[in-house]
Amino acid sequence: MNTIASLHIGEMGYISEESLDSIPLKLLEMGCLPGAEVQLVQIAPLKDPLYICVNGSHLAIRKETASKIKILKSE
Amino acid sequence: MSKKDIKVALIGNPNTGKTSLFNQLTGLTQKVGNYPGVTVDKKQGTCKLSATQNAVIIDLPGTYSINPTSVDESIVLKTLLKKDIKESPDVILVVADVENLKRNLLLFSQIKDLEIPTVLAINMVDQMTRKGISIDLTALKEELNTEVVLISARKNQGIEAVKAAIIKCHVAAKATPMCDNKKIDPAYFEELKAINPNYTLYELWLMVTQKNFPEEITKQEKEKLLSFNKDVSKLKKYQHKETIYRYQEINKILKNTYLVDKSKAKDLRAKLDKVFTHRIFGYFIFLLVLLLIFQSIFDWSSLPMDLIDTTFAELSDFARSNLPTGVLSDLIVEGIIPGIGGVIIFIPQIAILFLFIAVLEETGYMSRVVFLMDKIMRRFGMNGKSIIPLISGTACAIPAIMATRTISSWKERLITILVVPFTTCSARLPVYAILISLIIPDTKIFGFYNLQAFTLLMLYALGFVTAILAAYILQKTLKIKSNSFFVVEMPNYKLPSVKNVLFDVLEKTKAFVLGAGKIILALSVVLWFLASNGPESYKNAEQNTIEKVANKNLGADELQQKIAAVKLENSYIGIMGKSIEPAIRPLGYDWKIGIALITSFAAREVFVGTLATIYSVGSDDENTTTIKEKMRSEINPATGKKIFNFPAGMSLLVFYAFAMQCMATLAIVKRETKTWKWPLIQLFGMTGLAYVCSLIVFQILK
After folding, report:
1. Beta-bridge partners for A59
2. Which residue among A34, A47, A56 places its CB closest to the CB of B102?
3. What CATH number has the domain bearing residue A9?
4. Which domain holds residue A66?
5. Predicted ipTM?
6. Which of A4, A25, A29 to probe by mutation at the B interface, max B CB count within 10 Å?
7. CATH class entry, domain B6-264
8. Where are the domains of chain B?
9. Cβ B103–A59 below 8 Å, yes or no?
């Protein structure tokens, strides 16, 4: 199963509906919603955290959180 | 006759230009309730809405939602849940960024459900054309059922419209909720609402989810509310559902009122991010920025500081020759003037530091640093966000400790609080500056870098490294469990607004000078008293000295100097310094430095002022000399060598780098950690470390 953590820089995906419960409330509130398109913008030099763009929000989240959010990779 | 002031609470996501709007509305009327920091405590100001109506504007910390995950955000919830007439706002002004309107409206929707009259100000509309955004304002107003104003706070556009909207909204006092949680689970929320119909459903829901109750809630009601809190997984599920439901409503509204032409959305940020977060250049640039800051502090401030130093020495002289002799004149000349000078001399360095920090925050670069540093900081038990307190700590530990409020994990926050005082705060700078100029030659290394500036840089590095190592030890020893959660928004890059930066620097410098200044001034007066009074031996000093040196044929000047020195030695402060001399002699200090060490426990910066007072009491009246010159000529009577020689100077530098010498910081740590345990650990741990390290340094170098 793909997660945000398995994206490559520049790649996009859609957050899957089933990962709703594993997304922290704060992230949901910042626009990281099931069904939303997410792009991995940049990875920090030490491979963590990840810099993502979701629903117009540019956020940095830790790999640990990102690896819990399942996605469907887009073409 | 003017009407009663309208209380307006200013709320918004971080990076929406909330501070710009606050500055435009309130100008120079703003006051901070407490010590500075980026809107950490309640900032307040007044605003003239119309000819007859004024408003009090309260600036609340930036937040993404009312559900808090950090201390900072919980301030917002507490202010809004208060039903107490005095505190609760009449109108809420929500600031939103036009580019992130959707996410900003989440907070708006939550506030709307509290049923307080709300005005929505959409900021940065000057960017709309460039970003390809178009808004149907009339339709949006109707859909949101509230006053909506398009503004550009930085360009001072739409501010009058905001004022008009506040009045209109206050008069109409209409407030309707935007979302209805009953749609999630009718029976559940029906039951909740029945507990106390005086509160809106959303307020009751917040009480349940946040366990935050207004005083008016009875014990019975509280128990009923708490019973909803038992099923945690259900609660969490409903909170998730609620958020999704809110976004659905927002999407419905924005679908026809807010359009983005994506082809125009490309901008500079991606390019800049590639450079600033690059795996090699990223760190390199950060290092360069730090280097630039420290070089500037030393270069830019030396001229004004020398100027202040000489001016106060001259002022003291002028006062002495023009005031009638007497105790009051002595107090002014030897106590108050050097005391005030000791505060003023800080201003250049502090202002430059605050200026850089403000610019880094304003431009959005600070978030990139947080991103770059998170992994490294985590290894040492901290958080990427800890980098902001650690950098702010180079100005002053107090706002730095307040800035830790954005860290949601208690353990990471506590460790950051505990190690921040190791960073080189500006109170150490005058101590460092004067010692460095005495013991390090003013030459260039590598052909361009000033050796004195390099030494200062090394002291900064020493502070940082010690802070990091201390954090590592604390991480291994502290047995605290807390969830580490991390999310940081990466805002758009912006040119800093001159007004915002200047206001920020002005506000923080003012707070520092007034706060620390009081302590310094009071201490210099106390010092002067202790230095010019003493027991029997002090009063007899003059007589005894004259008798003792009677056969030595001294000149009048020399005799006077001798008398003054003996007097100081026998004054109260001299006795105090002498009594600790045995303990500090192995570190290379004499009793005069001992006095400065004692007073420095109140605040480090008192060191220079203390020596100034001691030497001006003990020196010849007629000569105009600055503190530096006085220190340079000081001889250790025991060894016959200069007191401020290389080994003793290095030992002092190390002592001041490590010791916990700031009452104000201890007080703030007590307040933030709610126990004396942590400040006491800081006091004894840091000072013990300082003693041992200074001892080693002096014994090796001497």
Report:
1. A52, B489
2. A56
3. 2.30.30.90
4. 4-73
5. 0.94
6. A29
7. alpha beta
8. 6-264, 281-477
9. no
